[in-house]
């Protein structure tokens, strides 16, 4: 009988968001580190869904608890959907997001607004104790801005402009961002699927 959801991540902000959305299922939500697991599966898939499943399967082999993993990234249409599944590794894992963000802005110099379309994509994979797999996808549409703006959020948030809000996703309050974000949407879909399961 599963008593908890182990998340294949050590990112505290992400764990907190998952806890907020899935908390009412009655299962504790813990990071893999807190559950005593350290190694994570390599992300060698060609889609966000494949990568999320790889991470979840790697952890599910070691436990009978529910396992959750996600994979997310930024797709910029003008750049052929770059950086895509390589978002975290774009220009090297140790490169700061200020440098990555400036590079993307520079690559879009002179590109008109209507061609600056982009989206954040998140795939969430859950493996149940009986090893069945559930996968959901959430998307947040927007554009790439012309400068780095905003203190909320992380990663590519400061260049991801949301026309309906007139600001970047790094400028909107965290509660609002969780409501409209790609990860928030994928997690809410997953919540609906998990509600139907018996733990």
What does this protein look like?
By secondary structure, the protein is an alpha+beta fold. The protein has one domain: Maf protein (Alpha-Beta Complex), CATH 3.90.950.10. The protein contains five helices and eight strands. It has helices at 12-22, 48-60, 97-107, 174-180, 182-195, and strands spanning 4-7, 28-31, 66-76, 82-83, 117-127, 133-144, 160-162, 167-168. Strands 1, 2, 3, 4, 5, 6, 7 and 8 form an eight-stranded mixed beta sheet that branches. β3 and β4 (82-83) form a beta hairpin. The longest helix is centred in the C-terminal third of the chain and has 14 residues, at 182-195.
Number of helices: 5
Q: Give the mean pLDDT.
A: 93
Q: Per CATH, which architecture?
A: Alpha-Beta Complex
Percent range for helical residues? Answer: 25-40%
Structural class: alpha+beta
**Which topology does CATH recognise?**
Maf protein
Strand content: 15-25%
Total number of beta strands: 8
CATH class: Alpha Beta
Please compute the radius of gyration using only Cα atoms: 17 Å
The low-confidence runs, each spanning 5 or more residues with pLDDT under 50, are none
For the largest beta-sheet, the strand count, sense and barrel status come to: 8 strands, mixed
Shape: globular
| N-to-C SSE string, H for helix and E for strand | EHEHEEHEEEEHH
* Terminal Cα span: 6 Å
Instruction: Tell me the number of structural domains.
Output: 1
